[in-house]
């Protein structure tokens, strides 16, 4: 990062007040009459109603539009396990994005804990406060056990964004990129660098969308996951590939697709050069991608490349999903975010990239033109069509799959 950007980022976070979010009042609180309603004695009335009927919390409190962004700071972006407190700027950032893009009030909660059971207990014990829980930057393999347990324990949607938000955006972008390159997901050879939260979920969803498990090579820090390895957990084991290719060099040679959800600068221009014609690279590690687009482009002119960042074309980042999927889930009080809702989000996101881009998006993106093609495979996060289209598709999928607890509002998001 340049010294200028570093200082600008620090100033942005420090000035004019520290941090990125604050709490706003939604009711008058000026007079004694106001306070009689907001606090004692009036507040006792909604208390009694909620005690008698817990669902009334959705009517009389902020629960319906409140999401907790909860972490333990064990996998902060691609920076690693830097602890809960250091993760707070990222979690406040997620809260900012929830509010900016979907009008959802979100609050960050950084949990210090002893083990996964302690973390699960902490989150389960505060869950009723919220309409949904967005788990963030929790490392694998603990994230899988944590999410599974919390889905069972909580009565509200629990969604590990690094798994499912990333997978939804990756699948949407990949289907579009392959369409542009004239390839089918069912035919391509895929290299997935990383075998953690994002990697496992991305590959699972690509398989649901048509990728062949035997065409996927997943790598961790020790190389390709294959069955002779004795150091792999049950989640990695689901992706063993015993074709005989064991090194990064071997799997990149002739690969159609590279998905990077690992760490910075792990592939070289030589690796990119050895890929099949018309390859697709999603180098999603934040803040520094697995390879810089300018480097990859020195060796290929038939390449589609995306990164997790806002300052290159083709941003492949879960921000294109999580505000909108939660909006749809909250608005029908979905009990969970299921596979049908994720598929609906993939299709809604990818369809927007194929349509003309509104002038306000071009302005916000600092672009004069964006058309579906090598430099535009996914909508920009600030595209105002994402909110109505993704939220509506997700809410309809929730209703159709039986997890909505209230009907779709009339003309919802139309
Ligand atoms: N663009 C986006 O929207 C998103 C991007 N990401 C990025 O994906 C990355 C992983 O995040 P997440 O899955 O949550 O983290 P996890 O800690 O769950 O998993 C990290 C995985 O990456 C592997 N890894 C890390 N560094 C290297 C390396 N240098 N070479 C090879 N493998 C490596 C680890 O290997 P091992 O198992 O051997 O330790 C592990 O399998 C981060 O960089 C993050 O920023 C994540 C979510 C969203
Ligand atoms: C974008 C994101 O969630 C990550 O890099 O962890
Ligand atoms: Mg994350």
Automatic annotation (TrEMBL):
Needed co-factor(s): Mg(2+); Mn(2+)
User: Transmembrane as a keyword?
Assistant: no
Q: Which protein are we looking at?
A: NADP-dependent malic enzyme
Say if the entry is tagged with keyword Oxidoreductase.
yes
Q: What class of enzyme is it?
A: oxidoreductase
UniProt organism field = Tolumonas auensis (strain DSM 9187 / NBRC 110442 / TA 4)
Give residue ranges for domain Malic enzyme N-terminal.
18-151
Q: Which SUPFAM superfamilies match?
A: Aminoacid dehydrogenase-like, N-terminal domain (SSF53223), NAD(P)-binding Rossmann-fold domains (SSF51735)
Q: Which Pfam family name is an example for this entry? A: Malic_M
Q: Which UniProt keywords apply?
A: Metal-binding, Oxidoreductase
Domain Malic enzyme NAD-binding, by residue range, is: 163-399
- A single GO molecular function, which one? metal ion binding
Q: What is the lineage of its organism?
A: Bacteria, Pseudomonadati, Pseudomonadota, Gammaproteobacteria, Aeromonadales
**Gene3D superfamilies, per this entry?**
Malic enzyme, N-terminal domain (3.40.50.10380), NAD(P)-binding Rossmann-like Domain (3.40.50.720)
What EC number(s) does its UniProt record assign? 1.1.1.40
**Reactions catalysed according to its record:** oxaloacetate + H(+) = pyruvate + CO2; (S)-malate + NADP(+) = pyruvate + CO2 + NADPH
């Amino acid at each position: 990062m340049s010294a200028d950007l570093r200082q600008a980022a620090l100033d942005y976070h420090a000035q004019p007040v520290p941090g990125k979010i604050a709490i706003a009042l939604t009711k008058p609180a000026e007079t004694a009459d106001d306070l009689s309603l907001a606090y004692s004695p009036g507040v006792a009335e909604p208390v009694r109603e909620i005690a008698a009927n817990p669902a009334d919390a959705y009517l009389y409190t902020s629960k319906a539009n409140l999401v907790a962004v909860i972490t333990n700071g064990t996998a902060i972006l691609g920076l690693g396990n830097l602890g809960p407190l250091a993760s707070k700027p990222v979690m406040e950032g997620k809260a900012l994005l929830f509010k900016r893009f979907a009008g959802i009030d979100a609050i960050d909660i950084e949990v210090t804990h002893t083990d996964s059971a302690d973390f699960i207990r902490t989150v389960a014990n505060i869950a009723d406060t919220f309409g949904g829980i967005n788990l963030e930057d929790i490392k694998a393999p603990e994230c899988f056990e944590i999410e599974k347990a919390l889905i069972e324990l909580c009565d509200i949607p629990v969604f590990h964004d690094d798994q499912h938000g990333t997978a939804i955006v990756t699948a949407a972008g990949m289907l579009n990129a392959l369409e542009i390159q004239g390839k089918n997901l069912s035919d391509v050879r895929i290299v997935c660098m990383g075998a953690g939260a994002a990697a496992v979920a991305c590959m699972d969803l690509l398989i649901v969308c048509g990728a062949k498990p035997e065409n996927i090579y997943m790598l961790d820090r020790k190389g390709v996951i294959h069955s002779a390895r004795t150091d792999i957990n049950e989640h990695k084991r689901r992706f063993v590939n015993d074709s005989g290719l064991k090194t990064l060099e071997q799997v990149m040679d002739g690969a159609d697709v590279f998905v990077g959800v690992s760490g910075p600068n792990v592939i070289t221009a030589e690796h990119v050069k050895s890929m099949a014609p018309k390859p697709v690279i999603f180098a999603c590690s934040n803040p520094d991608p697995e390879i810089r687009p300018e480097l990859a482009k020195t060796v290929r002119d038939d390449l589609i490349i995306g990164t997790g960042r806002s300052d290159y074309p083709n941003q492949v980042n879960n921000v294109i999903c999580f505000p909108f999927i939660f909006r749809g889930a909250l608005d029908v009080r979905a009990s969970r975010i299921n596979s049908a809702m994720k598929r609906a989000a993939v299709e809604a996101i990818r369809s927007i990239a194929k349509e003309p881009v509104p002038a306000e998006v071009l302005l916000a993106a600092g672009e004069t033109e964006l058309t579906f093609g090598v430099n535009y495979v996914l909508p920009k996060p600030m595209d105002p069509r994402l909110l109505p289209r993704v939220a509506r598709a997700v809410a309809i999928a929730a209703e159709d799959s039986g997890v909505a607890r209230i009907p779709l509002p009339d003309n919802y998001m139309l």
